[in-house]
């Protein structure tokens, strides 16, 4: 049976974790990117479809290509981040279902149903993006997720064969807490929840 994490761990994952825009001059060990994925991959998805695909942008040349796709307000924070992850989804993720969900013919649920492929690919990859942020925080990394970029430009620059499609760009590194904005309020339980 699982047990509750320590208060320290819960605070690191949620209550004290922030979205970072400024980064310490401290590299991210490439081995940590592998460890990160090894945790992300176990988050649940519909029929275990695992549509998330990730490009970890670390080289200066790839970073320059990505910067050209970012909204003006996201350029400097992305330039300064030691790693920037392009979180994408595989537009033909269902091809992997015979491997990922072998006890049922799940691929046939998708074959010929482009609307279901598009919806489930996108929604499950976004779900996995949430796991990505939480796994990064669990490993002591900070994140700066961004929707402010030109997806068509990112797709042309990084996925010219059209198989993967960019959803979120997420800076990764060790955040500079001295540069944080004040935390914005959240909705209360009463505002956001009902017990039925
Ligand atoms: C999907 C997504 C897209 C976002 N897009 C941007 C963005 O384009 N630029 C930016 O500066 N912040 C962006 N943010 C950051 C949010 O504004 C930030 O996570 C939110 O205000 C909560 O901040 P906090 O974690 O510090 O409390 C994005 C966050 C998410 C999850």
Automatic annotation (TrEMBL):
Keyword vocabulary terms for this entry: Oxidoreductase
EC category name: oxidoreductase
EC number(s) from the headed UniProt entry: 1.1.1.298
Name by which UniProt lists this protein: Malonic semialdehyde reductase
Species annotation: Imbroritus primus
């Amino acid at each position: 049976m699982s047990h509750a994490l320590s208060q320290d761990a819960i605070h690191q994952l949620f209550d004290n974790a922030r979205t970072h825009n400024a980064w310490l001059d401290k590299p991210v060990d490439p081995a940590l990117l592998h460890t990160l994925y090894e945790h992300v991959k176990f988050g649940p998805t519909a029929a275990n479809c695992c549509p998330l695909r990730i490009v970890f942008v670390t080289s200066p040349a790839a970073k320059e290509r990505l910067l050209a796709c970012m909204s003006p307000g996201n350029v400097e924070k992305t330039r300064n981040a030691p790693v920037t992850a392009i979180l994408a989804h595989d537009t033909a993720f269902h091809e992997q279902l015979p491997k990922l969900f072998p006890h049922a013919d799940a691929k046939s649920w998708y074959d010929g149903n482009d609307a279901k492929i598009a919806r489930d690919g996108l929604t499950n990859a976004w779900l996995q993006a949430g796991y990505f942020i939480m796994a990064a925080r669990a490993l002591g990394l900070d994140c700066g997720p961004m929707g402010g970029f030109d997806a068509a430009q990112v797709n042309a620059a990084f996925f010219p064969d059209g198989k993967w499609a960019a959803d979120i760009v997420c800076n990764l590194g060790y955040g500079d807490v001295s540069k944080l904005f004040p935390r914005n309020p959240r909705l209360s339980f009463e505002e956001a929840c009902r017990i039925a």
